[in-house]
């Protein structure tokens, strides 16, 4: 059994009416995953199961579709070690320490998105690429960057972002599960 972190794209109050987190956990358990646990109410899950990331991604996207969500609600699956590596790289240590809610880590369905466009962005945000993930420091101006998420997805494909605190919480919980299982 492997531990996985599952991040759903485009989850919010409207989608919660279609698929509650309790319903998602139940469906994931019924699909053969062990001990699915959601973290916060924003489409974050930790679950254990067999298979590769690609296989688990297919299965998770099938569960999400069966629950009535649309094709924009993509499940992005990562192993805890991948996300831990992003945290350990910590490309913006000052922001991580002082304003972690103003940093986001974007994970994409495509494991190798094109980040070439970030060098020419020209906005106040700072970008760093860590192992196929895009880390964005909004420099304390997240409310002024409302269109950046759409630009990132347009350039990199379907994905989802989590703030530094949320990612840290997911990695801590997933890591504790892995240690318990060894």
Describe the protein in words:
With 182 residues, the chain is of the alpha+beta class. The chain has two domains: 2-80 and 170-181, Alpha-Beta Plaits (2-Layer Sandwich), CATH 3.30.70; 81-165, no CATH class. 40% of the residues lie in helices and 24% in strands. It contains seven helices and eight strands. It has helices at 13-18, 21-30, 53-66, 80-89, 93-98, 148-156, 164-181; strands at 2-8, 34-38, 44-49, 75-78, 103-108, 126-130, 133-137, 159-163. The strands form two sheets. It has a four-stranded antiparallel sheet with strand order 2-3-1-4, sandwiched between helices. Helix 4 crosses helix 7 (164-181). The protein is globular. The N and C termini lie close together (10 Å). This is DUF1697 domain-containing protein. It holds the Pfam family DUF1697.
Keywords:
182 residues; alpha+beta; Alpha-Beta Plaits; four-stranded antiparallel beta sheet; 7 helices; 8 strands; DUF1697 domain-containing protein; DUF1697
The CATH topology of the largest domain turns out to be Alpha-Beta Plaits
| Morphology | globular
CATH architecture of the largest domain: 2-Layer Sandwich
Task: Kindly provide the name of the CATH class of the largest domain.
Answer: Alpha Beta
Q: State the order of secondary-structure elements, H for helix, E for strand.
A: EHHEEHEHHEEEHEH
Computed structural class: alpha+beta
How many strand segments?
8
Distance between the termini: 10 Å
Strands side by side in the biggest sheet: 2-3-1-4
Q: Main beta sheet: strand number and arrangement?
A: 4 strands, antiparallel
Return the domain count.
Answer: 2
Beta-strand residue percentage: 15-25%
**So, the CATH homologous superfamily of the largest domain?**
SP0830-like domains
Helical proportion, percent range: 40-55%
Radius of gyration: 16 Å
Low-confidence parts = none
The number of helices is 7
Integer average pLDDT: 90
């Amino acid at each position: 059994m492997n531990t996985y972190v599952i991040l759903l794209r485009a989850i919010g109050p409207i989608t919660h009416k279609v698929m509650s987190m309790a319903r998602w956990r139940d469906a994931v358990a019924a699909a053969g995953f062990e001990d699915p646990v959601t973290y916060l109410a924003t489409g974050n899950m930790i679950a254990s199961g067999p298979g590769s990331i690609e296989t688990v991604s297919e299965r998770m996207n099938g569960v999400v579709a069966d629950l009535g969500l649309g094709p924009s609600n993509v499940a992005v699956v990562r192993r805890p070690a991948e996300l831990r590596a992003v945290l350990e790289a910590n490309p913006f240590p000052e922001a991580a320490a002082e304003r972690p809610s103003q940093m986001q880590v974007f994970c994409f369905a495509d494991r190798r998105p094109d980040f070439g466009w970030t060098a020419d962005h020209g906005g106040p945000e700072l970008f760093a690429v860590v192992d196929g993930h895009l880390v964005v420091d909004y420099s304390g101006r997240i409310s002024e960057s409302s269109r950046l998420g759409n630009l990132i997805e347009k350039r990199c494909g379907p994905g989802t972002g989590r703030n530094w605190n949320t990612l840290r919480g997911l990695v801590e919980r997933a890591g504790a599960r892995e240690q318990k299982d060894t």
